[in-house]
Amino acid sequence: MKIIEKYNDSLHNPYWKYQLGPEAYEVKDTPQRVKTIKDRLCQDSRFSLITAETYPERLITRLHPYHDYIRNTAESLKDNEEFFPDLFPGEGAGLPRRVDAPLQGGLWCTDAVTPIVRRTYDVAKASADTALTGADLLRTGRERVVYALCRPSGHHAGPRVFGGYCYFNNCATAAEYLINSGRVAILDIDYHHGNGTQEFFAHQKSVFTASIHGDPAVEYPYFWGYANETGIGQAKGTNHNEPLPKGTDLEHYLQGLNRVIDAISAYNPTFLIIAAGFDTHENDPIGGFALQTADYATIARRLALLNRPTLICQEGGYNLDVLGDSVHAFLDGFIS
Ligand SMILES: [Zn+2]
Fold first, then answer.
1. How far is the CA of 193 from the centre of ligand 1 (A)?
2. Is 64 marked active-site?
3. pLDDT, tens digit, for every residue of 294-325?
């Protein structure tokens, strides 16, 4: 299986000024996450690394109205600076939609935990290019299953705002790229609901979105991810949420997963995109499920039965001791 990567080094490595201290740092989106995954996969000769291609900026700008804001803010910073928005005007402020100054970032970002540093734009663009390269390999029939080692993650970045460590939505960008070649289903298995992805396609029936995640009544992102969100207007019936309680183990997880798989089968997509987060592991510092490393192989084997050209994009997963093995188990389950 091809592992697609690009810029997976320390270029986007914020100091996280709002989360000082080594313990807090461990649970953030550090570059070590990618290194851990890559090191583990490179021990297995069935996986080979390739570098992502560079795609036109318009594939990002057409989806993300805050593209220029992120790029301009990043370019305005010095090497060791990081910028967090800390004023959020709210939807009711009636402000002009185009506001691009760094200090007005609260219009584009949902939170104060998604910093921009000097190279954030380059790395976020490269992360989207990684997903697009995978989409191209599927579209042209050169590969049947590929893994895009994306960082930063993308699934909390939506059509209005970014946030939650995410800048550009990698899966949504890949899906938009694929829909001229067939219907697309995106399944999000990160512990946190894929609110950005859902919002991108809430009105669009050409992309089916599904997410299996911690109950948003008690887990981020709180405002979205409930079972009654099923799509809007003509897209009614093309979104499926499976919120599960804290402590969910494999047995109960598979019950939810089976419902999701049934919904995707009924939709009959040409392509499948999996937003693969591993913060569902029992030892993850910010997740709340009780999945174990080997469980990811079981989950992947079920998803592989959908038998579609599949793009697997990396999302969350923050325990460096189990992340590499979890990703490996998942990919192994998919192809074996
Ligand atoms: Zn997550």
1. 8
2. no
3. 999 999 999 999 999 999 999 999 999 999 99
How many residues does the structure list for the chain?
Answer: 336
CA 170 – CA 119 distance, rounded (Å): 17
Distance 214 CA to ligand 1 centre (A): 9
**Contact between residue 311 and residue 138 where contact means Cβ atoms under 8 Å apart:** yes
d(CA 286, CA 212) in angstroms, rounded, equals 16
pLDDT by residue (tens digit) across 13-25? 876 655 555 555 4
What does the alpha-carbon distance between residue 271 and residue 171 come to, in Å, rounded to a whole number?
Answer: 12
Q: How many other C-beta atoms are found inside a 10 Å radius of the C-beta of residue 321?
A: 9
In this prediction the pTM is 0.95
DSSP reduced 3-state for 172? helix
Domain 2-54+119-335 has CATH 3.40.800.20: yes
In the numeric block, the tokens 């550009």 are attached to 168
Domain boundaries in the chain?
A: 2-54+119-335
- Rg of the chain on CA atoms, in Å: 18
Contact 121, 75 (CB under 8 A): yes
Q: Are 162 and 84 a contacting pair, CB within 8 Å?
A: no
Q: 220 C-alpha vs ligand 1 centroid, how far in Å? A: 9
Rounded distance between C-alpha atoms, residue 17 and residue 97, angstroms = 28
Measured in Å, residue 286 CA sits from the centre of ligand 1 at: 8
Catalytic residue among 67, 155, 156, 240: 156
